[in-house]
From TrEMBL, chains A, B:
UniProt entry tagged with the keyword Translocase: no
All copies of domain HTH marR-type, residue ranges: 9-149
Statement: the UniProt record of this protein carries the keyword Iron-sulfur: no
Organism: Dyadobacter jiangsuensis
Name listed for the protein in its UniProt record: DNA-binding MarR family transcriptional regulator
GO BP terms: response to stress
Gene Ontology MF annotations: DNA binding; DNA-binding transcription factor activity
Keywords for the protein's UniProt record, in alphabetical order: DNA-binding
Lineage: Bacteria, Pseudomonadati, Bacteroidota, Cytophagia, Cytophagales
Gene3D superfamilies named in the record: Winged helix-like DNA-binding domain superfamily/Winged helix DNA-binding domain
Length: 154, 154
DNA sequence: ATACATTTAATGTAGAAACATCTATTAGTG
DNA sequence: CACTAATAGATGTTTCTACATTAAATGTAT
């Protein structure tokens, strides 16, 4: 459905306003779809994001602050997200030797197993994007990167 | 900055995964920017969304359920958002004559005045999109519409 | 008309986000 | 070295979100 129908707004100030609203609307929609898939596995999109980052370390420990840097949502409280993963035995935590302020986090076998179960969902989810070509996808990614560029402007 | 740098991920499974992450990351970034602008006026993006919808009615009352339909975030609790606007004298509420279950909501002069103050911020915010052409904006909007199409697929 | 289902909005509640604060540790400077 | 600043992560608090439930009004079917 078109964004016009979805939010019942016939006119937009400009194609840019329309795009801004569409970006927000579509992302909320995508997140909701993801939330739905994950629900039966008792994991939130944010927790999944952390797990995915942990797997990306391929066995190496990673500090909480470095997880935050890699998060999609920088303002999320990584400490508490890790707590949740710990409580479910999806991650392990140990104090870092070289810097005793820091905490090393590693994914557990159980965490890896859960990701393996979730992978097909994510792939399906990403396959929605197959309606465009790889080149188009790259192009739009480049445009989004550009949008975030002039930090000092707004 | 590129999404690779922003979330410190060098490789992506596909251009589609990259686009999916970029969409989520960019939207969170946009929302954060909006939140920052609104903060000094003591209004949240969600409350602003409702106010904008009320203004769009051009003086006509609108039911709570119809506001929800027009919201970017369908799962938000419109009842309580309207409460907040009421408490700040930005909206008025009166029971609907034709259906006594329903409640009519109207924006106040004070609400309109606040929107007038916020408009320039929103315009600046939307002007970020000027780095792409109107045609490109329409193109991306069309793609986002398409993404949401096969409801039954994922 | 009665009974049951649906709709509309409000409310209760658990959990999460946003933001500030606190403690421990490390880094930097005179 | 002593002192201050900076950093890492945990925690407290308030607000918001997500979800379920409730209450009243309306719609529908027999």
């Amino acid at each position: 459905m078109s964004i016009e129908t979805d939010i019942k707004q016939k006119k937009f100030r400009s194609p840019f306003q329309k795009l801004a609203l569409n970006l927000m609307y579509t992302t909320k929609w995508l997140e909701y779809k993801q939330l739905e898939s994950f629900k039966e596995y008792d994991i939130t999109p944010q927790q999944y994001n952390v797990l995915r980052i942990l797997r990306g370390q391929q066995g190496n420990p990673i500090k909480v602050s470095d997880i935050t840097e890699r998060m999609l949502d920088k303002s999320s409280n990584t400490s508490r997200l890790v707590d949740k993963l710990l409580a479910k035995n999806l991650a392990k935590r140990s104090s870092c030797e070289s810097d005793r302020r820091a905490v090393d986090v590693v994914i557990t076998e159980e965490g890896l197993a859960l990701l393996k179960v979730l992978d097909p969902f994510i792939e399906d989810w990403e396959n929605r994007f197959n309606i465009i070509s790889e080149e188009e996808a790259e192009q739009i990614s480049a445009l989004l990167d550009k949008l975030r560029e002039n930090e000092n402007q707004a």
